[in-house]
Structure formats: C-alpha cells, structure tokens
UniProtKB/TrEMBL annotation:
Signal peptide range: 1-22
Alphabetized Pfam families for the sequence: Lactamase_B
Name of the protein this chain belongs to: MBL fold metallo-hydrolase
SUPFAM superfamilies: Metallo-hydrolase/oxidoreductase
Family per record: Belongs to the metallo-beta-lactamase superfamily.
Metallo-beta-lactamase domain ranges (all copies): 100-285
Keyword annotations of the record: Hydrolase, Metal-binding, Signal, Zinc
Stored PROSITE patterns: PROKAR_LIPOPROTEIN
Amino acid sequence: MRTMMTGAAFAALMLAACNPNANPQKPGDPAPPNPTQTVAAPAEKPVYRFKIGALDAIALFDGENPVKNDNQTFGVGLTPQAVAAPLTAAGQPADPIMLEIHPLLLRNGARTMLFDTGLGEGKGQLMDSLQKAGVDPASITDVLISHGHPDHVGGLIRNGGLAFPNAAVRMSQAEWASIRANPELADLVRIITPKVQAFEPGGEVAPGVQSQDTAGHTPGHVAYLIANGQNQLLYTGDLMHHWILSVEHPDWKVGYDDDQAAGLKARLDEVTALRNSGAHIYAYHFPFPGLGKVATREGRAMFISEAQSAKD
Ligand SMILES: [Zn+2]
C-alpha cells in the first residue's frame, strides 16, 4: 500500500529530507496510526530529483531484482514461512521478495558523481535513466563504487569499453584487491584498471563525500556520507538489502554476504546506529528512490520513506 501526500506535506518532507536536524525520530516517539502501511511514497521511475542542501541529486532507476524465498538469501537457516511473516504483515510480497536497484547521481560544482552503476548492458536500465535525466555519460567525472558485486559494478563497462570514459573509478583498496582476485571479473578489471583510484576508507573521496569503512557484506564495502552545510545523506550501498527484512531483522543471515557473520555484524551495527541517529539514508535496494530513515515504531525498527511524489 502506498500513501499519497500533497502540498505542504511535500514541502515539509523535502525540508526534512535535506536537514538532518529536522524532525528527529527518537526511540519512544508515538507510533503512527497504522505503522505497517508506512511504505515508500510514490515516485515515477526512472528518475527522481532531490536536493542535499544546495547540491542536486538524482535517483536513477536501473531495475528490479526478485529474490526467491528459499532461505538461501534472506533468513539463511530459517524457514520460508518465518521469512514471509514480517512481509505478509506489512502487505508485501513474500515470494519472490522484491529488491530494486537505483544508482545515485550527485552534482557538486564541476563534479558529476555516480554512486554504483547497476547491472549493466542488456540487464539494467541505467543508461536509459541517465538519458531521461539529461545526463551525458561522458560528463560523469567520478564513479564511486560501494563494492564489487555485479549489480553495482556491472554498468562500468559497455560495448567492451568504459561506459563512463571520463570518470575516475573510486573504491576502497580492499575492495579493489577483492575484485582483482575474482576471475569472473577479469574483463572488467582489464577495462577499468587505468581509471581506478583506490582509497583507504575514512576520508574525503570527492568534494563533499566521505567514505566509511563498512566491510562485512564484502571485504572492502564502503558507505558514502554526502554533506553540504548542515545537510547530510548516507549512501548505504548494501549494508541493507530489503526495506523490511534488513531493517526489522538485521540479525538474520544473508546469503548475499560474502562473509555471513561479518555481514550480519556490519548490518546490525548500522541499523542500530541509524535507529539512534535518525540519519537520512539513500538505500540502493529499497523501494525507489530509497530515501528515508530508520526509526523505532512500537518498539521495532522500521524504514520510513522521506521521498515525496514529485516527478521528473
Ligand atoms: Zn547490491
């Protein structure tokens, strides 16, 4: 179920989305009348424009990823019925479990940054979304990679060459080492090597963008904190995958995690931190455009969308 909002509500949400101090959600806040219906506000795919302070940002739809509920991906070791329970309670499909994929574009001065690149040629729609947004792939100056899984790096190459020919490709040193060690990614490595600038997580990687070491899902996974003035947005990569399962049950094992124990710990730590901070997040696999925060409702963690329904 989706909730429509209009007029002043949009304006308030837009302010809230851009200001980390606005409308802070604290544990113990009264629950809304119908918490299980708090889902992403409607946004027409494939392009969703928003602001981070004075910076222009665009969510770019790439595709959907339906995941079979067979206890291999979400809730490894649990029954499909147990995994289905919180989804059904929220009125969401339990099999397949639906993930979405949406890279983020950010402009800061002369820099045009793309965060992750989707599934790639023949699989994802990122190039169509960029065209709809009026962004020339050759104008992108920086591609910031969260980690080396195919739904994040697949779009780096196109027609046997670089999809973003003028962009530096930035990722953590640990992730670059992991990608280079993967024989399945040999072609990708050969093509992108001249463009890769690997970094040690924890510092500024582009104007207004800091990387955060969130290893676990992969050996060098990073999140990116985008800041402009008092406004902040955390690009979470694959710290969380599903807007209900990952948030309500971060302690369930996930088959997508290279190291399931390390992935679980990183996810649990992040959900706990987000629940306490009320920080604004951009979640790559949540319902498009994946903007919102993690709050506590009736004693449990929930994703609260902060997207408005303005369209491109
Ligand atoms: Zn992913």
